[in-house]
Design goal:
It contains 8 helices and no strands. By secondary structure, the chain is an all-alpha fold. The radius of gyration is 15 Å and the shape is globular. The two termini are 18 Å apart. GO terms for molecular function: haptoglobin binding; heme binding; metal ion binding; organic acid binding; oxygen binding; oxygen carrier activity; peroxidase activity. Heterotetramer of two alpha chains and two beta chains.
């Protein structure tokens, strides 16, 4: 099921407050720290041997920003998220061989990070809308695996 009109409104109304670099760095850092086996996809990033190394790694920050910027672009295509991510899904499945469960894991890390940055503004309703969006994105990115 797609996102509701109300969910889309909540997301578009709040996304403009996002600092893609800060959010991306923290969310990807959380993923790499919490799920250390995901580090195998980022061997070119240098030292990821500790939480401190991860959270101070410029390659992590740059890639996190890239991913969060992509989410921002997907928000502009909420009516066709699968279409928007079709090529990226294929790339992640056929070239990078990323475990598709990691897309869902990243969505969880991103949701936690948004909660941290939004504070009280991250209401249960807004949280649920973002979770629905991140599930749709994870599903779209996993499409290349089906």
């Amino acid at each position: 099921m797609g996102l509701t009109a109300h969910e889309k409104q909540l997301i578009t109304g709040s996304w403009g407050k996002i600092n893609a670099k800060a959010i991306g760095k923290e969310a990807l850092g959380r993923l790499l720290n919490t799920f250390p086996w995901t580090q195998r996809y980022f061997s070119s990033f240098g030292n990821l041997g500790s939480a401190e190394a991860i959270f101070h790694n410029e390659a992590v920050a740059a890639h996190g920003e890239k991913v969060v910027t992509s989410v921002g672009e997907a928000i502009k295509h909420m009516d066709d998220i699968k279409g928007y991510y079709a090529e990226l899904s294929k790339y992640h499945s056929e070239t990078l061989h990323v475990d598709p469960n990691n897309f869902k894991r990243f969505g969880g890390c991103l949701s936690i990070t948004l909660g941290h940055h939004f504070g009280e503004e991250y209401t249960p309703e807004l949280h649920a809308a973002y979770e629905h969006l991140f599930d749709a994105i994870a599903d779209a990115l996993g499409k290349g695996y089906h």
